[in-house]
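Supplementary Methods. Inverse-folding protocol.

Structures were first reduced to a discrete structure-token string of length 232. This string, shown here, constituted the complete conditioning input.
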């Protein structure tokens, strides 16, 4: 399937509720899970730029074992994004729903194992990073604007770009109607960044207070939007 086909399928999945709401809530899940991983494992779950930097520093210091958690997160996040895109471009009914349910399933597996057995940190990092990698392509585009649910550096870059173009009084070349302005797109990117930040704040408040059930709200959100999905 072409990239346009993927875009149409992703957009269709948000019909009936709004891709803006879906993207904002999923970005909140990403920030929340990232915050949980940082508190629980001292490793980012969806922020691979940070993991790459940390792992690179450790490797440069020849502390190879210390770089293992970040390396595991990077590898399994990549595996998750591969799986998420592979599902979305396949000829499956309800592929968007499958993506979100698969992401939720990996996260639920982590919660169950975390409650029942003592496992090494790298296993938990792998399960959660796969979950976030799978979720990442769930909403790839809102209108003509490409978005990323876990890459907040990119969101801030686009926010600054749209604000600069809005200040110049320019109109997006691919504008989809008179309301599609650079200022409106800046609001979208800013909303994604804020949602990620709110999720991280919530993780800082909840982590260590929910006795192993910290990720249940994130799982619930993934299931909720999976059930709302209307793609065919």
């Amino acid at each position: 399937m072409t990239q346009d086909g993927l875009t149409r399928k992703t957009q269709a999945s948000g019909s009936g509720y709004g891709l803006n709401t879906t993207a904002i809530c999923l970005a909140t899940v990403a920030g929340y899970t990232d915050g949980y991983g940082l508190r629980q494992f001292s490793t980012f779950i969806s922020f691979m730029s940070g993991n790459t930097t940390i792992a690179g520093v450790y490797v440069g210091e020849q502390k190879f074992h210390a770089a293992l958690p970040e390396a595991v997160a990077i590898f399994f996040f990549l595996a998750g994004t591969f799986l998420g895109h592979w599902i979305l471009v396949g000829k499956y009914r309800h592929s968007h729903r499958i993506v979100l349910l698969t992401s939720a399933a990996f996260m639920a597996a982590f919660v169950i194992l975390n409650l029942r057995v003592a496992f090494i940190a790298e296993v938990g990092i792998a399960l959660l990073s796969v979950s976030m990698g799978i979720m990442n392509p769930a909403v790839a585009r809102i209108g003509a604007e490409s978005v990323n649910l876990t890459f907040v550096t990119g969101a801030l870059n686009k926010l600054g770009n749209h604000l600069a173009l809005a200040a110049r009084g320019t109109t997006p070349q691919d504008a989809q109607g008179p309301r599609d302005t650079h200022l409106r797109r800046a609001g979208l990117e800013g909303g994604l960044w804020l949602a990620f930040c709110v999720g991280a704040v919530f993780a800082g408040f909840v982590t260590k207070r929910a006795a192993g059930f910290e990720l249940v709200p994130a799982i619930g959100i993934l299931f909720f939007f999976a059930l709302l999905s209307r793609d065919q």
